[in-house]
Amino acid sequence: MPNRVAIVGIGQTYHTGSRDDVSQPEMVAEAVRAALADAQLSIKDIEGVFSGNMETFEGIYLPDHGMAAEVGAFGKPGFKVNTGGTTGASVVTEGFYMVSSGLYDLALVIGFEKQDCGDTTAAISAAAVPTWAKGAATGAIGEFAKQALAYLETSGAKEEHAAMVRLKADRNACRNPYAHLKLGLKNIDEVLQSPYLVWPLRLMDFCPQSCGACALVLASEKRAKNIHKKPVWIADVEVVHQEPFRAGVFGDPTGKETYTQHVACERLYKRNGITNPRKDIDMAEIYEPSNWEELNLYEHLHFCDKNEGWKLIEKGITEIEGEFPVNPSGGVIATNPIGATPIIRVAEAALQIRGDAGEHQIAKDIKTAMATALGGPNWTVLFLLKRSL
Amino acid sequence: MSKESPNKKAEGPEYIRIKFDAPRPYNWSTGKYLGKVYAEAKENKKLVSNRCPQCKEIWLPPTPVCPKCKVDMGWDWVELPQTGTVYQYTYLVYPLWDPHFGEKWANPYPSATILLDNGVFYRHWIEETDKEKLRVGMRVQAVWKEDYDERGQGVQDILYFRTIEA
Hints:
The complex is a heterodimer of chains A (389) and B (166).
Chain A: E1 5-12, H1 24-39, E2 48-52, E3 80-81, H2 87-100, E4 106-114, H3 120-126, H4 139-154, H5 159-173, H6 188-192, E5 196-199, E6 201-202, E7 211-220, H7 221-227, E8 232-240, H8 260-271, H9 277-280, E9 283-285, H10 291-300, H11 309-314, H12 341-354, E10 368-374, E11 380-386
Parallel strand pairs in A: 2-3, 2-4, 9-10
Antiparallel strand pairs in A: 1-7, 1-8, 4-7, 5-6, 8-11, 10-11
Chain B: H1 31-44, E1 48-51, E2 58-59, E3 77-79, E4 83-92, E5 96-98, E6 103-105, E7 111-116, E8 121-125, E9 139-144, E10 158-163
Antiparallel strand pairs in B: 1-2, 1-3, 4-7, 4-9, 5-6, 7-8, 9-10
């Protein structure tokens, strides 16, 4: 039986397109200081420091170098991971493993990205393996465009439904002081009139390139209760890997290849006795780089049946006031500092459980929340968070 | 050494942004398995991949180990059909920047995920550029570079997939 692990400190930077005022390590330190302040701990209390970011997005191969002092890792154990889009979730998983194993009582996990340094899409797609599929690569956005198209042509959804998701995200982001894009959108026409980037995705259908960082302090059960009066428990974690070029596509609806979201959900729900996620879980922070992907994910995460995802947004079910709020933070489509993005999902879900989300706090009581991540190699990471175990 | 900087003291900090645009050459190896794909494409205009001895799944690109069964794949090569159905597609409206070669790059052809007629997924681009004629489910066939000397670029020896009658 693994030891229980709680989130006892939550910190993030504000997120924006350009942070000329700080170096990457200085920016990351802001989130670390915020998380430590929230936990009312000193960096001296932390036993291991684990961080995650995407090499080459900043045009350098060790973006964490020159950061040991700023994040308090100097002289401490820990390492950096990169698992593509899931990086920030892998870091939390890593910290969870370390504390749950009993190796450490207090671990600091950090995700970060400073996208004003380089060109993310260049790193993802144009730097794809040249011996295979480089020519057909269209970046993360191209993959999501293909899914959006398949969804548009087969599910019964209209462009208006994706626009409704975008509008929901923007309304929520405008209430979140840390969110990047706060467009103040008034109606879906503003979304439907934005220009195409990669067909059928419009400019407003896709996430921005953000700069920012997010950090969490994870604690063992024996320490957690003395550190924070509202610890949030990581009740369960599920990680499933796959290789997209070799094993079908994202969310392959032919069922020829079980897609990772499906496998991960099946395992997580079964272990935790979840039969109706929308009833058994109170809210979700999901990794939706595009509004179309959010509709897809409603189905892949079994929040509804197949081809019913667009009906959830049509009925307002996933709105902040709805029956099952999804991404009250504004989500990835409003804020995407890639290495930090999934850790923000966990942080935001934990804030909702604590009741500390401020203006974007869900009105109904949140006891159980789900946080998800997906990434380029078609990996899925799922977290189930709870107020009490 | 002078005690004071000859430069006038700055009023406040000046933030510096550094731009770097020097070209960097790279070399990539295909390896033994992908090398077979390159050779068959160049010599025979064939698309090949290998099959798991246990579950009989064909994996594309080829692999030395079956991802599912975790067993050695061996050297059981299969010729793949060159016809298939478009499963997903998109096209770039905004060009990419290629850090390998330091230039802007936009494939003029739509990028597609094609379900080959034996059920294997394959990513390539399609010839049809008329948006009105693009459809999920359209039938397509590989068109190869005819000149032997121009081939040798692996799967890029296939120019594109051309629309065929259903």
